[in-house]
Amino acid sequence: MIYAEILAGGIGSRMGNVNMPKQFLKLGNKPIIIHTIEKFVLNNRFDKIFIVVHPEWLVHAKNLLKTYGLTDERLMILSGGTDRSESLLAGPRYLQAEGLLTAEDVIITHDSVRPFITHRIIEDNIDSVLKYDAVDTVIGAIDTIVASEDGEFIQSIPNRDHMYQGQTPQSFNVAKLVRLFDDLSEDAKAILSDGCKVFILSGEKVKLVEGEVSNIKVTNPYDFNVANHMIEGDKDDQPSL
């Protein structure tokens, strides 16, 4: 089976003075998360599309699906965990609990606040994860990367030709993701920043898939303004609630 998982469990603390998580803010005429979900619904290769939401926003998310006519039977809203790792595993844990998980299952995981994902990126993730077990979507680094451990002095300046900026989707063989995560020490789990790091810490290879500069993540008010201009031009620089 091929699954999708849209991660919408964050509270959007970097968006500033707004009264809801950023994924629920309107971009153009619909919430950011709806733009994202629609991209995945258009792909008929997915057997199920999980939407992982913070427990306090489950009802709101369900109402949004109804409001915007997203009645696809493949859509399922799940409650997120206490951190990103547990939210990432919400879909896999559901499959485990229902006795549906097989060794061949793959899952394409994506940030709900990256609404400009393309059909090509989704397809490349599906094709690659079916072959390589773990996939990360990246673009080549444009700026020089400076490494500093103390935040005051430079330790190194890596060769930019070897540096990439991570995006999503990140895609995985589901059973392997669960097994590798469960095998990590508690200290290792504490430093996880994304799913691919589970594989890296376990000594596994992660295949790179080319992303797009336009596949931006809406994290702060500046990102929101850029995304709003991408949707409908220079109309209103303030988040619409």
Share of residues in strands:
15-25%
Largest beta sheet, briefly? 7 strands, mixed
CATH class, named Alpha Beta
Tell me the domain tally. 1
3D architecture notes:
There is one protein chain. By secondary structure, the protein is of the alpha/beta class. It starts with a strand and ends in a 9-residue tail after the last helix. The protein has a seven-stranded mixed sheet, sandwiched between helices. It has a two-stranded antiparallel sheet with strand order 2-3. It is globular and about 50 Å long. The chain has helices spanning 32-41, 58-67, 84-88, 90-97, 119-132, 174-183, 186-190, 195-201, 221-232, and strands spanning 2-8, 26-27, 30-31, 48-53, 75-79, 106-111, 134-140, 164-173, 207-210. The model has no long low-confidence stretch (mean pLDDT 92). Catalyzes the transfer of the cytidylyl group of CTP to D-ribitol 5-phosphate. Catalyzes the formation of 4-diphosphocytidyl-2-C-methyl-D-erythritol from CTP and 2-C-methyl-D-erythritol 4-phosphate (MEP). It catalyses: D-ribitol 5-phosphate + CTP + H(+) = CDP-L-ribitol + diphosphate; 2-C-methyl-D-erythritol 4-phosphate + CTP + H(+) = 4-CDP-2-C-methyl-D-erythritol + diphosphate. Belongs to the IspD/TarI cytidylyltransferase family. IspD subfamily.
